[in-house]
Queue: 2 jobs
Job 1
Amino acid sequence: MEIKQEANYKPTKLKKFMSIKSLLVLINSIFIAVGQISGVLLVRIYFLHGGKRKWLQAFVLTAGFPILILPISISYAKKRKNINNRVLVTPKLAIASAILGLLLGVCSYLYTFGMSYLPVSISSLLASTSLAFTAIFAYFIVKHKFTDYSVNAVVLMMFGSVILGLNMNGDRPIGESNQKYTLGFVMTLVGAAFHGFVNAGVEYSHVKAGVVVTFDLVMQMQFLISMFSTLICIVAMIINKDFQAISREAEEFGLGQNKYYMILALSAIALQMMMIGSLGLIFCSSALLLGIVNALLVPVQQIFAVMFLPESFKSEKWMALAMCLWGFASYFYGEYKVSLKKVTKTKQATPRDQV
């Protein structure tokens, strides 16, 4: 009788855990969607109306990290009786967070450099190739296995980038040189590669943490990653004399001084939401799922870009978008089949009749 009760308890406990995990995945995905769509649009609006400071926009990506003090403080307050559980980040994880933060700062600059010259419809499609780079780096770093479906997804997304590259001159903004447009194209692709590496690196740090990875630990790591990313941007801004130029740039901004500061503030909040969702999703699932969510948001970004920005959506973009979605569907279906196989094996390994 006791064995039956224990057998019934385990599935119930597992079901409860899976429901909480699914809820966290949903919440983090919403954070990514809101942050990514609104944040990218705001950054592009900044550049369209006279903004020129690329390191400033890279800084804005993670400058909202002090927001994390609130949930971390709440967690501390709940566990105030157990002092040993307050600081969960080990020295090894702190070093990993610092390295990942510095890489994220470089990645942020590459993305903002690309967005300063490329329409959102182009930059978002190129940024979606981070799924392909994440899959490649996850294979070597986290030992995720390639399947026919994941290989198909990588190839399709790369072909989509090639199509955009062959037709890049047809969508170049008026007055922008071919050299700058090409450089923005290349920098965005390199940024996607850096992003894929950082995603795989974050998951690897969780795997090799040496401690139980909890949501509190993830929040503390995210704080450190964002802090170091912000620090490298601050150093670059000091060297580039961006701080002295902010007030002058605000006065010359096409939408007015007040909207200039409002755009910077809203960008910081939106992009920090994206960061929280991204690292949270890796914690709840994997870096590859983060790449999938980013790829899925591409068509939504295209719609908002056409609605709110002076952008068109030509045939080559439709073709690249179709390849992106085809790659996403292929990868998602492959992961679905793998999960079904795991469930089947688990059921076969579990005795049906227990006394």
Note: Residues 1-10 have pLDDT under 50 and may be disordered.
Job 2
Amino acid sequence: MEENQKAQKFMPGPPQLPPLYKGQKIKTGPYTTTVTDEMVAQRERENEQLYRAWREQQRRRAMAPDDDDSEYMGDFKDDTVRRSFIRKIFCILTIQLLFTSGIIAVFLFVDAARKFMIIHWYMWIIAMICFTISFCTISISERARRNPPFNYIWLTKLTLSMSYLAAFVSVFLEVEVILMALGMTTLITLGIGLIATFSKFDLTMRTGLLMIFGLASIVSIFVIMIVLLFTYIRVLHIIISVIGMILLSMYLYFDVQTIMGGRRIELSPDEVVFATAQIYVDIVLLYQYVLLFMARAVLQYKAERKVLDMQVISVPYRYTGRGLARLLTETAFTYVIVNYLYMYLTCEYMQKYYLAIKNPALEEYIVGPPHILEGPDSEPLDPDIIYELPDPEDFLIYSS
């Protein structure tokens, strides 16, 4: 007992590097360096890490053989703590992504759900508001993201709203495009995750670069969107999607490095919900930009015997202003007449187009909705609309 007390009495204190002060002159070889605020802060972080490592060493020395080490949540540098932290994040993230994929599948393959989304299109605005509130709450409030069950409640709200938004941008496209977008997103995510884990390039040391690129990207996207409101330039749409994918890839790279540890900026092991929300949002937004890059003009319909339910026409931004919706509508009318079929016009655009052209030859092929059969007055389409016919690969008629 006395020997242990003597050992503790003469045990050296925590190792510390010499403190630095702003304006101090330091000789590095033949050069003299002036200490800045950043260098002072860096030295303080280094001394703090040394102190935590020393404290952990002292704790382990004082630990009895029968003490349970699994309950200890010490320094994040501890490999056991970090592995447990990473395992929790990716388990929750997997559940989130599977849930989101299931929601997308429901709205794609369940006819009633798809019609609900098409008819109640304004629901995406409510989902966007819920997502914004949930994400800001998790990011700003430490209590909301750390204290159960509130942290998981907010994470659930964020997952529900983000899943609906992902389904909303997916439901208007064909299944083949969605599957390709999912595959591309998976490959990009895995590639970035591996590179961020094993690469020596530490993006957490360059937060200023990330902030500058993010600000420039957001401003560029808004400017391009404003330009697209007044004129159509096909390449601008592609530029938006590419900028978005690069920006989201950089944020995903940054977030993965903060989770894996060993970098200048690390997340605390208590920030499981915050880290999961960051990675989840990065992946889902990346999927949406990939989908935007691959999207094509589509007419979705459902065949019930000889009646074709024309549900919705979707034209991506890069094809707007070229008359694709009008071309798809005319193609559908021609297809019905040639094949002696009937149409139920659920699509609002097709309703307006049918009432505008007032073609008697089409009347016998239209079986609904009822207000279309009654023939209310409507404003005619602009006869001066001029459009170029796209390549056949740029559009298709898709049967759901």
Note: The CA atoms of residues 59 and 65 lie 12 Å apart.
